[in-house]
Amino acid sequence: MDADLQYTVDWMKRTSKSYVRVDMNVVVDLADKAGSYWFSPNTMRIFGTRLPGLAILTTTGFMYFVSSDKTPSGRMYAIRLVNPETMNITSFMSCISSRERAWKMMYKEVERNSNNG
Question: Domain containing 100: what range?
């Protein structure tokens, strides 16, 4: 895990915070350093991907964010999960029809995981 990310996670644990909002550029920079092509301009252009301005960092180091992709039937939203060790980005939940619903579902999942330890 990146040293700055680990510092933030440690601070969260000391202050009993279950999650914090982080600038999306933190996720993009860490993924780029890890060699991920997920946020490359070409990849994002191919899928018509749009990103939010922020992500959620949990005490486990995992990060969640909502992205959207252009599909033949319109814009669809997905909740993405980022592994802090590998910077692997997976779709936690996809094919969500509205941004508001995606954010609500993401926060619900973050809270659920926070309450389970």
Answer: 3-115
